């Protein structure tokens, strides 16, 4: 069976593990990266069906990872990306920095449980597939 691949890019080990466990339980194939640079490398090599990425990370943050990703091929321009943050963000300011085109979604970690994030991922994938 060709399971749907989700790349989780998160520098906080407990959060990375939490998302990975809930996604595995839903029968997704989970790929992991601990910073934006590794996330970009894994994304371009493995071509996941969706990328779930923290914004604030060492080495390369989620916004810079997304910018570099969107410079790539047709896959890289169209893969859905869900950006996670612990910060109360001004979406307008973030959206100014996001390269177009390409689907991007935002989730404030404090407002969503791991399961609710997975439900959002399933909703996004239902529209994509």
Q: Helix share of residues?
A: 40-55%
Under CATH, the homologous superfamily reads: Response regulator
The largest pleated sheet is described as:
5 strands, parallel
Any idea how many domains?
A: 1
Radius of gyration: 13 Å
Count of extended strands: 5
Note the main attributes of this structure:
19% strand; 6 helices; Rossmann fold; globular; five-stranded parallel β-sheet; alpha/beta; 5 strands; 129 residues
Report what the structure shows.
By secondary structure, the protein is α/β, with parallel strands linked by helices. A five-stranded parallel beta sheet has the order 2-1-3-4-5, sandwiched between helices. The chain has six helices and five strands.
Topology:
Layout: E1 5-9, H1 13-25, E2 29-33, H2 36-46, E3 50-54, H3 62-70, H4 74-78, E4 81-85, H5 91-97, E5 104-108, H6 114-128
Helix pairs in contact: 1-6, 2-3
């Amino acid at each position: 069976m060709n399971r749907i691949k989700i790349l989780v890019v998160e520098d906080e080990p407990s959060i990375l593990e939490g998302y990975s466990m809930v996604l595995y339980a839903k029968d997704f194939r989970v790929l992991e990266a601990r910073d934006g640079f590794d996330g970009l490398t894994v994304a371009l090599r493995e071509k996941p069906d969706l990328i779930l990425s923290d914004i604030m990370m060492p080495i390369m943050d989620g916004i810079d990872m997304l910018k570099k990703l969107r410079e790539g091929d047709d896959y890289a321009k169209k893969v859905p990306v869900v950006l996670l943050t612990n910060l109360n963000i001004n979406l307008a300011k973030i959206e100014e920095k996001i390269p177009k085109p390409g689907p991007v979604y935002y989730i404030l970690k404090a407002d969503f449980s791991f399961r609710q994030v997975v439900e959002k991922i399933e909703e996004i994938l239902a529209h994509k597939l």
